[in-house]
Amino acid sequence: MIVSPSLLSADFGNLARDLEMINQSKAQMLHLDVMDGVFVPNISFGFPVIKYVQQLCKKPLDVHLMIVEPQKFVNEVRDCGAAIMNVHYEACNHLDRVVQQIHDAGMKAGVTINPATPVCLLRDIVAQLDLVLLMSVNPGFGGQKFIPNTLNKVRELRALMAETGSRAVIEVDGGVNDVTGKQLAAAGADVLVAGNYVFKDTDPLKAIETLYNL
Ligand code: DX5
Ligand code: ZN
């Protein structure tokens, strides 16, 4: 399993220490949650923080934008060193164009859907994506409870991808732990995002390894 720990739950007073832990870990990516207080009812961190993270982190950056009008910031996200730029389906009026802009900027393109957004709405874009991010909580906060219907959505997405010839990877975000992670692995998820499960554990390296071994 590919593991993408979510920095949102890290200790921001000891960011360099937590990033060194990520460097030493089996995590293959680092998930960064950008919130604007408009698309979601919370504000997290922005580009200056991500630039600093990029200097210290050896893993590819998986940037999850929970913001309105993400198309305005494609170049900023690229300049932060992001490998993957995830935009919300619900935030884009012209999703096809945004996906092209992300690719033109040299990044992998991910599209994220909220728990109440059906997988079938991705039918005409999924073949162009490198990643689909399924939210398994309502976005905005770490430490929430996993929504079990996500397991059905993973299976449905896998079938849609087979039908459309999509080679995207399936990432799941929210309420992931050893139990829900195992269920997601069985359902066909490729990448697990985990915030609280990793950073609130007394042994975060072991928590990452547990998910990695699923
Ligand atoms: C929620 C964020 C998540 C969050 C996950 O809006 O997108 O990435 O950090 O946190 P946990 O794993 O604690 O649910
Ligand atoms: Zn996220």
Descriptive labels:
binds zinc ion; 8-stranded parallel β-sheet; binds D-xylitol-5-phosphate; alpha/beta
What does this structure look like?
With 214 residues, the protein is an alpha/beta fold. 35% of the residues lie in helices and 20% in strands. It has 8 helices and 8 strands. The chain has helices at 15-24, 47-56, 74-79, 95-104, 150-164, 178-187, 196-199, 204-212; strands at residues 2-5, 30-35, 61-66, 82-88, 108-113, 131-135, 169-173, 191-194. Strand 2 (30-35), helix 2 (47-56) and strand 3 form a beta-alpha-beta unit. The radius of gyration is 16 Å and the shape is globular. The mean pLDDT is 98. Bound molecules: D-xylitol-5-phosphate and zinc ion. D-xylitol-5-phosphate binds at residues 6, 8-9, 31, 33, 64, 137, 139-144, 173-176, 193-197.
